[in-house]
What does this fold into?
Amino acid sequence: MAVAAAPASATGAERDVEASINDLLGRMTIEEKVGQLNQLSGYGYNPAMTGQVKAGAVGSILNETDPAVVNALQRDAVENSRLGIPLIFARDVIHGFKTIFPIPLGQAATWDPSIVEEGARIAADEASSVGIRWTFSPMVDIARDARWGRIAEGFGEDPVLAGTLGAAMVRGYQTDDLSRPNTMAACMKHFAGYGASESGKDYNTTWIPEELLRDVYLPPFKLGADAGAATFMCSFNDINGVPSSGNRKLVRDILRGEWGYDGVMVSDWGSINQMIPHGYSADLRHSAQQAANAGVDIDMESYAYISHLKELVESGEVSEQDLDTMVANVLRLKYRLGLFDNPYVDEATARRFYAPASLAAAQKAVEQSAILLKNTGTLPINSKVKKIAVVGPMADAQHDQAGTWSFDLEKERCVTPLTSLREKYGAANVLYAQGLRHSRDKATDGFAEAVKAARKADVALFFAGEEAVLSGEAHCRTDITLPGAQAALLKALKATGTPVVLVIQAGRPLALSNVEADADAIVFCFHGGTMAGPGLTRLLAGEENFSGRCPVSFPRVSGQTPIYYNHKNTGRPAEGITLIDDIEIEAGQTSTGCTSYFMDAGDGPLYPFGYGMSYTTFSYTPPTLSAPEIAADGTLTVKCTVTNTGTVAGREVAQLYIRDHVASLIRPVRELRRFEKVELQPGESRELTFTLTGADLAYHIDGARTAVEPGEFSVWVAPDAQSGEAARFEIKK
Ligand code: NOJ
It folds into this structure.
């Protein structure tokens, strides 16, 4: 059966592909069609797997990384199966294959699409050299709750930032020609709303009104689809009671229908099967029917399609037309990847890892991703410093600086801060005392030696944080402070009187109000990957300036989560905050002022979204507007001049926010719409120009319906989500 004619806009090559797909479909048995939709995890060349490949019962394989095995299995598919349809080999290459870049949340802190794109390009080049042509990345789930371990894998809390960087990652993996053998198909995941998992507990339920879904959670996916992402993956969660793997509205209506997406939708691992414990499917057969009818093309490791789809098609519970559309999507991906022409990996050039330029790019990513949160003048390490104490569980932790989802890590390739500092300052000038064996260590027996080192030194660098295993899938925490006895060790170091720099590597923004006062400077680096050590050393030494900016809000205490800058104002926004210790004994019920804050934490984050210091300072002129009022379909030009007012060169991330003051559905206090990173020499100014259109001022007012409502708006161009001067304009009636 022919699936569909190629659209009128299709190129000649696309028409040929559609014709080839239709030709193949016409020759396939139902079993062979279902086989294309079956994705299995495989390690090694074993009889069970090869038998299935030769029978045409497998369409793609994840997790095989040996190029010889990849080729052997591919030979079974291409030369020893009836129709010779090639396999796709997939892997979670999330922030690098061998050359590990900062975790995605760290890459988000660069606010620099070109860095993200380059990292993805390098990852694709390395991974494709062993035959991997499909990565399950980028993750663009908006995460507002740092208890959720998977916040590490995404680009933070803002849809514009996450979508822009997600699209850059897609371009890096795929280039403009996916059929090149050194590309990988990208996968926008997890569709959708996974980051809204209730209480930050992984896999948990979500309840997301459609307007919020469309304003906040879906836009990054749309940007990825527009950038040409070849595949999507469903999420594990249910949204409003319907698991994503069986969610017709999400997949068929929105992704396929509204967005016209013709790529592949793969389930998450076992997520079709998991609709049974969700309470949505009665059994595996039922879940296969629901997933297929929702538009999920590939079953990753649920064995639901391979066990039941044939029978479901024969009984008419899944239409043959739908089956053919699913298979066509998979075949189209194989054509797009060029696998029909070029199925094998070149074993002679396999294992292209750690090119010097790749390591340099990874180091640059660290340098632009680390965030200077506090500095009372201790940094950069100045020339009077002769002895440096290096303390802490993350100072020499090769495995842990790589972070979560580093499946293919060779940890001995990770250059730690201790190694780099010794190289830079001379081993004899670096006094190393670990203090704690790992980040969760509660034993204080190492403190004395660490304190001794700090006493002898001119500055103490305390490398703290979270081990890699404390974030990522299924690794959620309720208490997001520094684990173990790290806060106590910091206090002991501070008591020596030696200035202390707290350098944190972690998988999430940590709640730092309990340690902030004990550090003279704080550097926050989301796990930095292979080159974390050299990158951090250059920053600490002042050879490179800090330009990382918070891609998420940093709470003061864990109990403030979820916390995000684009929140609603409430009818009683925080003012006149009275903290718990200032409340009088037997004070009256209304004594704290009855506004929206916590008695024991006040209001707002410790460090806001967009924030980050550097070794220089920047000034912003108030924004000037092209007009005081515009029509709903008009455009507005916003200009602002940014000046480097300090004495060293630096990079600044100018952020344009808007606020719609009065709306039929109340709008957030600020929403990011544009950002631009500029590099300025001391004294240099740059005028930035941003153009806003009605689409930037619209929001979802009634399900899928958008509106730009007349009335007053504010616009800021600012260094973070809490500062800057606003200009006002109106949308005309
Ligand atoms: C489960 C994860 O949720 C997903 O992100 C990943 O790509 C798959 N497993 C495959 O490993």
